[in-house]
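ugh ok fine here u go
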Amino acid sequence: MLVFTRKKGESLIIGNEIEVSVLSISGGNVKVGISAPRQISVHRLEVFEAIQRENQAASSSQFPPSDVLKKFIR
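structure:
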């Protein structure tokens, strides 16, 4: 992990297209702004992990469920 120290109003660049800026600091909170191309997804870690779990559950489940199919197959 690369660690940076930034002050309010300062930024860092990831690659050539992503800018991360410190917008404000209040108590123990830091407000961060991210400028990135639309095709790059940006999520909080807990949201990203929830999406991953949902995708994993969807890919491992049988769809549609076999009991639903039985209603249509004779």
